[in-house]
Amino acid sequence: MTNAYDEYMRQVTMPMRTELTESGFTELTTADSVHDFMQEAEGVSLVLINSVCGCAAGLARPAARQAIAEVKPDNLVTVFAGQDPEATAAMRGYFEEVPPSSPSMAILKGGELAYFIPRENIEGYPMEQIRDHLTDVLRQVCAE
Q1: Which entry of 55, 79, 81, 117 is annotated as an active-site residue?
Q2: Model pTM above 0.85
Q3: CA atoms within 13 A on the CB side of 8
Q4: Which of the residues 16, 46, 53, 137 is marked catalytic?
Q5: Fewer Cβ close by (within 10 Å): the C or N end of the chain?
Q6: What are the per-10-residue average pLDDT scores of the chain (144 residues)?
Q7: Quick check: is 142 catalytic?
Q8: CA distances (Å), 7 to each of 1, 13, 57, in order?
Q9: Residues sharing a CB contact under 8 Å with residue 60, sequence separation 6 or more, in sequence order
């Protein structure tokens, strides 16, 4: 049975999820879906660790959407920190060398971490700077 809080959070986060899925991201909501993706993923993947905070809404999600309009990696996936804890923990387990932060973005090549943009490089920066940073990294990793 669902409690009122869970239902409320599902409603609140729906537009935050949709913003990415409508831009081509596949949402991974369970640990199994993360493990399945990681076993199958080939090429370059952009993983956006989504969150409900303002820096995700005004910076990370718009920057990612605009960056992939310039350089689209082979795979676009997202997990939602604080909402899908098992999926988020499973994804973070693939790049344990970096401290957890959300929002954040991981660029994987062949399932291995190639680059990571933590919250500290998102929060407080202009969206355009984050977009350009991500675009540059995607160009470089996709060209390798």
Answers
A1: 55
A2: yes
A3: 3
A4: 53
A5: N
A6: 78 89 96 97 96 90 96 96 94 95 96 96 96 97 91
A7: no
A8: 10, 10, 21
A9: 48, 50, 103, 104, 105, 122, 130
